[in-house]
Task: structure prediction
Amino acid sequence: MREDDCMNYPKVLTIQDVSCVGQCSLTVALPIISACGVETCILPSAVLSTHTCGFTGFTCRDLTDDVPAIAAHWKKEGITFDAVYTGYLGSTKQIDYVRDIMRDAAGSLKIVDPAMADGGKLYPAFDGAYVAAMRALYRDADVVLPNITEAALLCGMDYRETYDRAYIDELLRRLTDGWNGTVVLTGVSYAAGKTGVVTYQNGSYHYYEHEKLPTSYHGTGDVYASAFTGILMRDEKRDVSRAAALAAQFVLACIKATVGDDNHKYGVKFETALPQLWQLMQQ
Result:
């Protein structure tokens, strides 16, 4: 191991649910961030037998009431984190507890993936009160990673399936109005067969474009956010645009590794692409 690898060993806390089967949430966050050479600590918000897309009759054990005691124990032990990264949170009560944890994590980088909507619609379990709570959470953070649906909900704009650069610019402007954090907007497509990610930092716009494959898989947003977090935390310059682009390349590699396997519909085979993630980080 190189000397700089030994010196740069950050610790990340990620807060989201865990699916015992299904490649999403903590099931992908823990191995992907760890593969970036980052110590990964977890706070499960719930435990599910499987994830909720494509499975029926799954079990779910909500762990909301355990969160304050876990956080209090960490505080007593003097445990701190270099970053706090949140994914899917199941209720406004969980969001309130996470905001408390973020307030106590002074000096840490706060990254919020507002995993609550896609395709122009909120997930079935959520409502307007949840959107308001998520809006408050991301404004406590340093970086927010919404897709276009989530961005529109967070800033009160109508969702458009067809859009232009002016629409995206307005989304970014409203998301950062009164908030000087960074937006990483995913799933931005200006041309057929292409998609990409926009980073918006201090009024500066950067777009990374790549090919758009004609298939999609559950959990790729979680794979993206986890790879972004791991790459960013290993970068001493904290280059958000670089992390955003490399994470997109990794997700593309994960999808390509899965295409053609009709028996694997519940997520991407990210494990087979982990060596490529490390190689991308060396660029």
Summary: Residues 11 and 81 are 5 Å apart (CA to CA). The chain has a mean pLDDT of 95. The two ends are 17 Å apart (CA to CA). The first strand starts at residue 11 and ends at 21.
